[in-house]
Request: fold
Amino acid sequence: MNFVNVILPLSLEGTFTYKVPEELQNQIKVGQRVVVPFGGKKLYTAIVAEIHNKKPELYTTKEIYSLLEDFPMITQNQLKFWNWIADYYMCSLGDVYRNAFPSALKLESETFIRKSLKNIPWEDLNDKETFVMQSLEVRTSVNLKEIEAFLAKKNIIPVIKSLFEKGLIETDEQIIEKYKPKKITYLRLNPEFDNSEIFKKALTEIGKAHKQREALLIFIQLQQQRTTYIEKGELVEKSSQSVVKALIEKKYLFEFQLEVDRREEYDDNIEDSYLLSEKQQKALKDIENNFIKFETVLLHGVTGSGKTEIYFQLIDKFLNHKVNSLLLLPEISITTQLVGKIQKRFGDEVGIYHSKLNPNERVEVWKNTLLNRHKIIIGARSSIFLPFQNLGFIIVDEEHDSSYKQNDTRPFYHARDCVQILSTFFKSKVLLGSATPSMESYYNHEQGKIGWVELNERFGNIHLPETEMIDLKKPLAAPNISYELKEKISQCLENKNQVILFHNRRGFAPIVECNECGHSPGCPNCDVSLTYHKVTSTLKCHYCGYVRALPEVCPHCHSHALETKGIGTQQIEEEINHLFPEVRVARMDVDTMRKKHAYEILFEKMSLHEIDILIGTQMVTKGLDFDKVQLVGVIRADSLMNLPNFRAEERAIQLLTQVSGRAGRRKQGNVYIQTFDPDNPLYVFVRENNYDLAKEAILNERKEFLYPPYYRLIELTFKHKNQGKAKKVADYVGDYLKHYIKSPLLLGPEEGMIPRINNQFIYKILIKQPSSKSTRNIKSYIKSALERIRQIQAYRSVKIEIDVDPL
Ligand SMILES: Nc1ncnc2c1ncn2[C@@H]1O[C@H](COP(=O)(O)OP(=O)(O)OP(=O)(O)O)[C@@H](O)[C@H]1O
Ligand SMILES: [Zn+2]
Reply:
């Protein structure tokens, strides 16, 4: 067994073979981290995927440099899971590795150079070479990135090469471990002082240094009281930095360091579980019965029905059988109320994993999971990648939520769907929960693949809120607030209750337009209009981040007739402040929630009733559970329906149902939906709380127009800064695929909905396939089309992304 195949953190197909040096042969295991050279002098951290003795015939193998630890960081199950993801989502194993593994554990290679021992013949060097050698006079070693500061990038390699050939420098690869364990400094007494004679003598030697003597006595006292080590910080606090330093210098005390967990211990009281209501009890029983027959069960429980409590009791039952659980939540909910609730119940058994953790905290949760220290993991979508031990139960809360799909970096996976595979490795049970289940889950239920449990009553037998439509064509109290809504808000506030208002656009106004010439300032990098942010008096692009000051005159015709069109949350806030000057208003959107702990502060204020009206984007629709929210208002429902996406209606109904669900969770509440089109049949479903009927309508349409869940989609995106090139490659692939896939199932290539983002022109191809069929063939056609593209030099620079099951 002297070869290994490893996974490199690169977007390259397959694994790579290396030779194992003799001294490592007995130590190497699958799943371990190793350092390997790749592509010239670069070093990477790779993961061992396979150990074998098949010597590659076509090339000579390089050797592994070193092992990073003597145990596997990746489990066998994870390797299987990574392979499945790479295969299904059509990306490389390296893409999965890069995304699934904590960044702090992936070492980075940087080439360093240092001076050799040879004398420097300064007069023979050209000025570029002189620069480099001078920098090495002041520092022993410099990396190539730093040289970019004084030499043009393209010159660096030739200059370094020449100095190298002259024997003046040596290159030197250094690996930088990014993960820094947290260390605490402790103190101990000089062991010689165990002998009381020596100790007495030492005390006299301290002489007049009273403070030192005092500190030493405090230390001894502490040590007698404790079974643990004494932290240096504690003694410093009781005495002073300089005194402790002196004691260490005089060798009365010795310092030493230990690694500790960054995870803070939960030291509050543990709460008992609640008594379930009759309905909850029944739902729980139904779920358990369904698990006898099905691996996956969906709990369809209306908003406020107490699904969380049912999750906890199931987790508890699994825990009693020594089985671990994973609770997945949409990204936003993770920073909110549920985390506190689960910690109150399960204390230190819980590990939390999400994107707001810093890299070191991520490593710790990873290691603790590997060591089976967390019996329960609560996390956002990326937590499916943790090295689980003994995972027996997985819950996907709000399973319909689109944040389970990763859409910014490869792999473009959907956590809910991946969980179905993950569970087969562990033979675990999966519970999906939602008040507004996805069409995919309905379909799976129809197909007999998953069990289904209904919980159609709110906890405490409280009625779901009463919903009314308000016609925006009637006179208005403010540009976007009807008299009726204003009146209802006043009443709600008079009764000392709280209000949530939902609008799906952030900023002040999506468009600034000139009334003279019709010009609307757009983003220079993208084909979109800039959004006006009044607070900062700027125009921002929500796609690439471009920002400019609001121009005083029209950039096109120089008139002063610039006006804002459309509305954003900032504008609603302004109108509300104007209508209710005495009232405490807060806004919740990406712009206000950027700071760390912004959510916690806002939720605290909401629970303490220090906020009367909360205005926000989609963020306010998810999971919030505040006793005093009696009124929910939707500013403009039409803007949800009119999005050009086949999922627009499904999403609109889900959003309206979810946001309505924030109202009246302790006592029946009210929902007011403002719209220009109150007769739209979709609103009937929302008003009557009839999600089942809505789902029928949506599913019929999906079937007719060949969309999910009846058809699977694969979307190809072509991007290039040269429009012609992007189009050419898209056409080439389209023509190739036409041989195998016929018209209604192959759409495009066509321009992206936004034809240019961040200076990249975009073309798209959409492929459909009946869900009953495997996508294997389609995927192989796509692969061979892309292989052909890679053969053509001129086309290689076009970026091609494959999105399997796009949302
Ligand atoms: N058995 C119980 N005893 C006491 N309180 C309960 C019980 N079950 C639920 N509750 C309370 O009822 C409220 C609603 O429950 P929960 O937040 O779990 O609803 P949900 O089904 O998750 O709703 P949503 O889908 O709207 O998020 C919570 O404040 C919860 O603490
Ligand atoms: Zn832009």
Notes: The pocket of adenosine-5'-triphosphate (ligand 1) is lined by residues 274-277, 280, 301, 303-309, 435, 459, 623, 625, 661, 665 (CB under 6 Å). The CA atoms of residues 41 and 111 lie 8 Å apart.
